[in-house]
Design goal:
It is a single chain. The protein is an alpha/beta fold. Helices cover about 40% and strands about 15% of the residues. It has a 5-stranded parallel beta sheet, with helices on one face. α5 runs parallel beside α6. The longest helix is centred in the middle third of the chain and has 18 residues. The mean pLDDT is about 95.
Length: about 270
């Protein structure tokens, strides 16, 4: 086992109203997993009460910043604790998000299309799941082109919204077009290990989609999407081996919103 190298790049706090545990518990788990650091990326506030039950309120954002700052001080010299954000792409909120991201220095901004939230579904779902899947991938590519994000989170999440309607071969041409646009933007994409806990029990994205990403040279960031402390760094070794199996040789994380790259072989050797 070598010195710690990797970061947990996607995890949450109780401010989102659907996570458990303190940031200190998450940081301690990162240390136990052999990670160098942890970047908290709790769900961003949105204007006009959009999906308010599953995210911090706008007036809680400063509380979030202070909470992560205190945890960073507590773990100084043990685990590198950083401030990030999972920031929804919801068309029409781009100016709000740009201002939010500028308020405090962030290390990693994840872009997410959460097609399951009621406001998104009310606007875009017309009763046809295949059309909804197309809209999702269109918005995923749109989000990459805004310049707001470093990484796109759980990029085939939509498959879990109506699992019986998910046909990869049918949707693949639309995914390919989205990935072409994402690759041109330079934005990274996430390999999210929490997919194994969802309706379609596989990583997000699937190995087939990962291979399409690799063919286009899209960098990959690893995240567990932990909403409980024990899931920090969960499944990293298996995820890294999956990346190797489709041709990736490097894994990435962001600090100061700048992409850092390490060889997968070194990353694997660093894990506990």
């Amino acid at each position: 086992m070598s010195a710690p190298l990797l970061y947990e790049s996607h995890c949450h706090t109780t401010l989102c109203k659907h996570a458990q545990g303190t940031p200190a518990e998450y940081a301690a788990q990162a240390e136990a997993r052999g990670l160098k650091g942890i970047i908290f990326t709790c769900h961003c506030p949105l204007p006009d009460g959009i999906s308010a039950p599953v995210r911090m309120a706008p007036e809680q954002y400063e509380d979030y910043v202070a909470l992560i700052g205190a945890t960073r001080q507590e773990f100084a010299g043990r685990v590198d604790v950083r401030l990030g954000l999972e920031s929804d792409f919801f068309p029409g909120t781009e100016a709000w998000l740009k201002e939010l991201h500028a308020r405090h220095p962030l290390h990693h901004v994840l872009g997410s299309v959460h097609m399951q939230v009621p406001e998104y579904r009310a606007r875009y779902f017309r009763g046809d799941w295949f059309e909804y899947q197309q809209t999702y991938f269109q918005h995923l590519a749109d989000s990459a082109e805004t310049g707001l994000y470093d990484t796109l989170a759980h990029p085939d999440l939509v498959k879990n919204e109506a699992p019986a309607a998910w046909d990869f071969n049918r949707i693949q041409p639309f995914i390919a077009r989205a990935l072409d646009r994402i690759a041109a933007s330079g934005v990274a994409m996430e390999l999210n290990t929490s997919g194994l806990q969802k309706a379609i029990a596989e990583i997000n994205p699937s190995p087939t989609m990962l291979r399409m990403m690799r063919e286009r040279g899209i960098p990959v960031v690893l995240g567990s999407d932990a909403h409980v402390a024990r899931r920090v760094g969960d499944g990293y070794a298996a995820a890294l081996r999956t990346l190797q199996s489709v041709g990736y040789t490097e894994i990435n994380f962001f600090l100061d919103r700048q992409r850092q790259t390490v060889p997968i072989s070194d990353a694997l050797a660093s894990l506990r």
